[in-house]
Amino acid sequence: MTSDRVEAPVRTVGAVADELYLKCIRCGKCLSVCPVYRETRIETLSPRGKVALYRAVGEDDLEISEVYAGKFYTCLMCDACREACPSGVELDLILNKARTDLAYSGLMPESLRRLDETIIAAGNISGEDNEQRLGWTANLESMPIGLDHGGQAEAAYFVGCVSALFPASYSIPQSLVRVFERAGVNYALIGGDEHCCGYPLFLNGEGERALAMAHHNVEAVRDTGAARVVMSCPSCYHMWKHIYPELLDNGELDGLEIVHETEMLAELAKEGRLCFKPWPVTVTYHDSCDLGRKSGIFEAPRHVLRAIPELTLVEMADHHENSLCCGGGGNLETYDRELAQALPRRRLQQAQDAGAKYIVVSCQQCKRTLFGGARRERIRIRTMDLAEVVSEQLEGEADA
Amino acid sequence: MLDPQIIDELKSIVGERYVLTSPEDLVAYSYDATFTSARPNLIVLPDNTQEVSEILKVASRELIPVVPRGMGSGLAAGSIPFGGGMVLALTRMDRLLDVDLDNMMATAEAGIIASELADAVAREGYFYPPDTTSVHYSTLGGNVACNAGGARCLKYGITGHYVMALEVVLADGRIMRVGGKATKNVTGYDLVRLLVGSEGTLAIITEVTVRFIAAPEVERMAQAIFPKLTDAGKAINAVLASGANPSMVEIMDETAIKSVEEYLRIGLPLDVEAILLIQTDGDEADAVRGIEIAAEICRQNGAREVRVATTPEEGKEMWEARSAISGSLGRIRPNKLGEDITVPHSAVPEMIAKIKEISAKWDLPIVIFGHAGDGNLHPNILFDKRDPEESERVESAVGDLFRAAVEVGGSLSGEHGVGVLKRPYLEMAMGAVAVEMQRRIKQAWDPKNILNPGKILPTKGAK
Fold first, then answer.
1. Minimal Cα–Cα distance from B450 to chain A, Å?
2. A124-267 fold
3. How confident is the model at residue A102 (pLDDT cuts 50, 70, 90)?
4. What is the DSSP code string of A249-300?
5. B163-169 and B175-179 as β-strands: parallel, antiparallel, unpaired?
6. What is the ipTM of this complex?
7. In CATH, what number is assigned to the domain containing residue B310?
8. Cα separation of B15 and B18, whole Å?
9. A52 — contact with chain B (CB < 8 Å)?
10. B107 in contact with A, Cβ within 8 Å
11. Position A12 pLDDT exceeds 70
12. A275-393 domain in CATH 3.30.1060.10?
C-alpha cells in the first residue's frame, strides 16, 4: 500500500463476498435505531434500504450513480444498525465498502473529496498551517509542561484536529492538561508533528490514503519516548486502536499503549490523584459512537462522574451500546448540513426527558453538535466534555 | 413508466421531494420483511389526509394501482407492489393527535410508530396492550390494516380489539370517518371491524383512534426449560387450564434457541428441545401466585429447570431471547418463510408433531416458535431462494402446513394477514362462499380495483 491514490482496478460490489448482504432478512429492526431514518422516515436512507441497494448492485440489478452515492453518504456511520441487527449483518463493513467502491469509481461527492484533499495537503481537517496546532496553549496561565517533558513523559497527548484548531473546542485540551498537571502526570505535546489521524479518510472510503499519516503519527509519538498515547477525541482513539493495526505492519505499534482521556481520568480518580468538590447537579452521559459502540468504553467516564460528590447521574432512553448518535458522525455534516443539523434535537429531548441539566460527553464533535443543536432549538441544557467537568470540579478550583 | 404529467400532478400535491422515482428508491420500496420483492413505478409520501385524498383522485382517474405501506415490516408480502404502480408510504403522517384521559383513548395518524403511541399512553400511566415483535418498527396504520397481534394477545386480544374509530380515504378519494368514542355503538354495519385487517384493499387508513386500559401493577416472567418438546406442549395446556391466568405463553424450539444464543450469547441451554416463556401480570399477589402455579405445572410436566425472574430487567432479558428469534434466523439460511398458522390451543402439541413430520418429509429445517398460549405458531421454513429445487419443496411444505392447521380446526394466519403468500389457500381455509362474499365486498368498495390489487383474494381459477 502507498499513501497516494492506489492504482487498483475499480472495485465493485460483486467482488465482495455476498454473505455480507445475504444475511439481511429485511425485518426492519434497524429502522428503529437509525437516526437518519428516524428523522426522514424514508426507506432509501435507512440501513435496510442501503443493504438492498448494495445488494441490487451486487446482483446487477442496479447501476452505481451519483444518486446511489448520495444515499451512502447520507449516513452517520454510527453503527447503531450493526448493533441492533438480529441477523448479524455487518452493516459497518457494507457501509464502508460501499463508500470505498464509490471513492474508487470517482463518485465521492465533491465536498468530501475536498475534505480528503485538504487533509492530505495540510495534515489537518481545516487546511490551516499545521504548525498552528498549539494555538490553544496561548491562553494558559503558564506554559504547559508537556512542551518541556525532558523525555520523561509517561503519556503523549494526541490532541486531535478539532480541539487543536477550532477555538470553540480549545477548552477541552486546556482542561485536560490542567488536570494532568494537578494530578502530577508527566505528559508530552507534539504540536505540529501531529497530523490528522486519517479517520475522515477512512469514513470517506479512502482508508488506504491514511497510511502515511499512521506511520508519521506513530513515529512522532515514539519520538517523545512515552509508552502511552492518550486522546481526547474518540475518533482518533478508534482509528489508532482499531484501524491502525490493520493498516500498519506487524510490530509498528508494539509496546505503545493507546488510551482515551476517559480511561486515564478514571485511572487517576481510582488512584486518588483527583479530589473533587461537591457538584449538586443532575447530569446525563452521552456515549459517543466511536468511544462507546465501536470501542466498548462505557464505564470509565461514568466512574469519573460517580466520583464527584453530590452529582446525580441519570441515563437517557438510549444509552451504552444503544446510544443515539448526536448527528455529528460519518462526515454527514460536510455532505448534508441541513439534515445533520436536524438530528441533535431528538438526543437533546432524551436528555431533557431524563431530567438532566448537563449532558457530559467525551468527544469534541459531540460537544459541538449538541451545543449547536441546543442553541438552535433553544433547549436549556449545557454540554460539557468530561475533561472540562473534571477540571472545574477539582478540589481547590474556583467555582465556575 | 408513468406519464410525466401525472408525476408532475402528484408533485404538485405533496411537493417535489416527496415523489420518489429514482431507481434507488424503487429498489428500497420493493420489499417487506418477506423474501419477495417487486418494484413500483413511483413512491408518494403524503403529509396529511387531504393529500391522500387528492392522490387517490388522480390514481382513480388514471387507474394507477395504489399500494399502501408503513415501515415495510409485514410478513405476508401485503405491501409489495407486484403489479407496479404507486407505493403510498404513510411514514410522514406520524403525528400523535390526542391522548384523551377521560375516555381512555388515543388518536394518531396512521404512520406513527406503534411503540411511540404505546409509550405516549404509558407516560400517562396507562397501557396499550398490542405488542407485536415489530412494535418499534411498524406503524399503527400497518398494525390495524393487518390486525396485528403479539405475545400478549392470549390475555389482552389483538389490535382490532382496541380500534374505536378510523379515518380512511376511499378508492375515489372521498374521506370517510367510521366508529367513534362511544363504547357501545351498533349503528349500521360495523365498518371499523371490516376495515381492520383489510390490508389496504378497501381503503387507505389515515387516522386511528384506539382505546387503552389501566396498566397492570406488575409483571412476572418465568422461563421453563424442557428436554422434550412434547412435554412443553402438554405443559402449555396444563398452564392454561390452571388458575395461573398468564398474559403470555411463548414457545421456542431447539433451532430457535440455538439461533438466538448465537446472536445474544446469554447462556441459553443448547441441549434441550424447547423453552417456554410464561408471563403473568396484575397486582403483586395475583402475578406472583400465577407465576408460581405455572412454574410448578412446568416442573410436573417434565421441565428440567424453571427460572422465575426476580427483577424486571431479568424478565426483559428473557423476553429479548424470544423476540430476537425471527430476525436471528438469517444466521442459519439466507431466506425464511415465516408462517403464522393458528390452531385451537388444545391442538398445539398435535400441530407441533405435524410440523416435525412435514419438516422431515420435505427435508427442510423448520424452526418452531410463537404464541403457543393462543395457538398461534410461527413455523419458519429456512431455505435458499437461489436453489429452485429447494424453493419448490418449500411450496409443497407450506401447502402441507396449511392443510395440517385446517385439519386440526385452525386457520392460515393469526396475525400477519394473507397478503399474497397465503392467498392460494384462502378458499381451503374459508370455503368458496365466504371467498365469493369477500369478492363482492371488494367490488363494492373498490370497483376499479386500484387499492392494493391482487392481495388477499385469490385470482379466479387459480389453485
1. 23
2. Rossmann fold (3.40.50)
3. very high
4. PTTTTTT-EEEEHHHHHHHHHHTT---BPP---EEEE---TTTTTTT---HH
5. antiparallel
6. 0.93
7. 3.30.70.2190
8. 6
9. yes
10. no
11. no
12. no
